[in-house]
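ESCALATION

Customer reports they have been waiting on this structure for their group meeting. Please prioritize. Original submission:
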Amino acid sequence: MSLSAAARRPVLADLLAQPSSRAKAFAVDAALVLTGVAFVALLAKVSFFIGPVPITGQTLGVIVVGAALGSRRGAAALTTYLLAGLAGAPVFAGAVAGPAYVLSPSFGFILGFIPAAFVAGWFAERAWDRKPVLAFVGFVAASIVPFLVGVPYMALILGVVVGTDVTAASVLGAGVLPFVVPGLIKAGFAAVLVPAAWLGVSAVERRSRR
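Update from on-call: job pushed to the front of the queue and completed.
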């Protein structure tokens, strides 16, 4: 067994869905991925358009989906989410979707959701999601990932496509500073929600053993 496999711990989805065959495992994984897509799409509609990039509930959804499904299924869910939006499904914030969304200043953040979900799942697979303090640290780390992709992408679109005069100050003001406090709040909420789910699962397991 490899070191990475040995280090992996079950995530919430592993306990809630335990298929007995490979075919059933594929069906369960597909169902979990689609559920993750729907969850992020729902939270995307909780949005506040303050500039070229809106404040939305998407990041909370990405964190929770990644932690609940694990790194592999979480990344698959956000990849499916991105592809669904590019295909025209109304899953992004606002009513705009389709291939032209790649020219949106916020599209880079959606690209960044894929590795962000993977990171959240990676921490969950090492049991960081079971205690609020560790969960908060891991979820903050995952929340930073979309900015690593989204901010440069936003600056590129604003400068090349929109024709805006892009400066360091304007980029920080449009794509970073407004999201710091909301991001911490969302990470904190997830750091309460996911460990609470683990407590619920543990309580059910204790009752079933009696």
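Sent to customer with the following note: The mean pLDDT is 91.
Escalation resolved.
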